[in-house]
Amino acid sequence: MWNELLLTLQDANTQWVLFGSILLGVASGVLGSFALLRKQSLIGDAMAHAALPGICLAFLLYGTKSIGWFLVGAALSGLLATYFIQAIINHSRIKEDTAIGLVLSVFFGFGIVLLTKIAQSKNGNQSGLDDFIFGQAASLVGSDVKVISSVAIVLLIITFLLFKELKLFTFDRQFAKGIGLPTGFINALLMTLIVSAVVIGLQAVGVILMAAMLITPAIAARYWTDRLDRMVIVAGTIGALSGILGTILSSMASNLPTGPVIVLAATVIFIISLVFAPNRGLVSKGLKLYRLRKRVARETVLQTMYDLAEEASISNQSMLFTRDQLLTRRRMATRMLDKNLHRLSREGLLNQTDGKWGLTAPGAKAAYEVTFNNRLFEIYTMYEMRFAYLQLAANDAWEYYEIPSHTLNELMELMAVHEHTPQLDPAHFAKGEKYYIANLESNDSNKRKREVKSS
Amino acid sequence: MNPVKVSNVTVAYDRKPVLQEITFDMPEGKLIGVVGPNGAGKSTLIKAILGLIPTASGTVDIYGKPYKSQRKLVGYVPQRGSVDWDFPTNALDVVLMGRYGHIGWFRRPGKKDTAIALQALDKVGMKEYASRQISQLSGGQQQRVFLARALAQDATVYFMDEPFVGVDAATEKAIISLLNELKAQGKTVLVVHHDLQTVKEYFDWTLLLNKRKIALGPTEEVFTIDNLQKTYGGRLSFLDTQLDPSHVVQS
């Protein structure tokens, strides 16, 4: 197999084809990113399907296969279809998806009629037009590749030069217009760029699947980055990779069309991105959720232990608690409770005597921290407006030690007003002593004055 | 010379007039609130002034010249909901967009532009959030990013479309102090506003609008029950609950 691969790669024509599909992949990935962010994924599909009658008409008018005229025909009928879609949306109550569905099928149907007509004519067999349906990269010859590559390079240069303008236009069209960007021109330009990227891919990828080439690398790239410039580069790279894979695999198996293989390759990369991408990927999201649940469960058990100890010390009762006491104090799933009780005792935060659970010295400290943090957060939510200047975003974690000291003092005073201050000093009660925090004169937790109640 | 002169502007969607023959001069160095019921054409007025939508008739002059030649003097804060906040970019990048009008075609923002953008973010209390992905900001923070972008435009006249909608207390405070700072610098600000209770507190001048200009002038003079009745028509029962009438009559 490797020998076969090497032989394929040494072939001059294959090298040309490979070069062409790489540039094609880059161009469609880059422009696909803009199509995706403008929520125009389906427009690309419509353009690709609508290009077929244009190609057929170009063949009928010119008489033989000519990549240049095919591109012109495809671009013209693609733009005409886009125009029809816009006209239908503007002048009727029909919405965009319906308009795209209508125009796409009409153009494609007309294209198939023309294609059948050509196939039945005397020079139809040499036309090679069938390749345009599913794509055949191997059918590209040197001159085709030259045309495709030059167009792709021009597209990339324009995108690079106008990156700033295209970005602003895509993000906020109104503002772009406000600062004087000719938004009408940029819209037309971007449309033309996207149509061109679609059109140069038609012979290699085919009209049916070209839209996937535009969208799949772009959406896969979106998973890896939160910056447009990087997204465009990643999308271009994924497009190129798909192009390479598709071309090599399809040239090794006879009669295997390139388009589907390229699209499958791109889709595999997309699925990998969907599952494994950092931050946005499913695995990463799942892990985050798992860690959060684990942390919440652990904190719930610790805080319940603390609450019980606090109550018990006030009424001078035993500081050891049964499972049922914990469950009565705070409802939670028994399986979760058992799992966390044992985990915490393995960590040395809890110990078990006669089926009862108690906090160890480090456990008391941990439980105090958790309780303090959570009760402080409760106070914060009660007075959210007053503390709005903290600028907590909704998904930020709440950690008391990240709060500026004067705010922390204010929160602790409010906590005392609401009798919410944790009463047990962790440093002492593990020894069996029951200590109370007398007042909050000094807010440094190490310097708190304590009043010994009883032991 | 008046910063903005609106003459005879009419806007119509599908032959139904949204704004009719609006004529007014904006005085320099004032905070001007635009109030009126839903559908009164408040946002449409801003968009018409900025040339974002076609007008059926009328002209707009900025410091005596047509808007097109005076773009750099004008800053704009669109409604927050007008863009997709999941766009792959961060807060600083959005603020830098305010510099694009000064940078010109093909060139990338330079160090000076970045410094201006960071300064603008600092002014709205968002400097620490410069590299945050914009979808991870709260609604109020997103609004402040939009304000910072307008500041980065370094304009003399500002138009803000409902900046107070759906924001937290911190953002509201930040916007007010920013408005006062702009005023102190002699800049002119027109703000579309929806909360009648705060009009007197926030704005020197008020424009009452309901498809037509009802009144424009210093807030104490024009923000009266009589004018509000003309603006809001039958919806006054709702007004009574919102406003203490004695308060209004007093002015």
TrEMBL record, chain A:
Its main location: membrane. GO terms for cellular component: ATP-binding cassette (ABC) transporter complex. It is found in: Cell membrane. Pfam families: ABC-3. InterPro entries: ABC_BtuC-like, ABC_TroCD, WH-like_DNA-bd_sf. Gene3D superfamilies: ABC transporter involved in vitamin B12 uptake, BtuC, Winged helix-like DNA-binding domain superfamily/Winged helix DNA-binding domain. The chain crosses the membrane at residues 16-37, 42-61, 67-89, 101-120, 140-163, 175-198, 204-224, 231-249, 261-283. Keywords: Cell membrane, Membrane, Transmembrane, Transmembrane helix, Transport. It is a multi-pass membrane protein. One of its GO terms (biological process) is cellular response to iron ion. Belongs to the ABC-3 integral membrane protein family. PANTHER family: ABC-TRANSPORTER METAL-BINDING PROTEIN, METAL TRANSPORT SYSTEM MEMBRANE PROTEIN CT_069-RELATED. This protein is probably a component of a manganese permease, a binding protein-dependent, ATP-driven transport system. This is Manganese transport system membrane protein MntC. It comes from Guptibacillus hwajinpoensis.
UniProtKB/TrEMBL annotation, chain B:
Keywords: ATP-binding, Nucleotide-binding, Transport. It comes from the Bacteria. GO terms for molecular function: ATP binding; ATP hydrolysis activity. InterPro entries: AAA+_ATPase, ABC_transporter-like_ATP-bd, ABC_transporter-like_CS, Metal_Ion_Import_ABC, P-loop_NTPase. Residues 4-236 form the ABC transporter domain. PANTHER family: IRON TRANSPORT SYSTEM ATP-BINDING PROTEIN HI_0361-RELATED, METAL TRANSPORT SYSTEM ATP-BINDING PROTEIN TM_0124-RELATED. Belongs to the ABC transporter superfamily. This is Manganese ABC transporter ATP-binding protein. It comes from Guptibacillus hwajinpoensis.
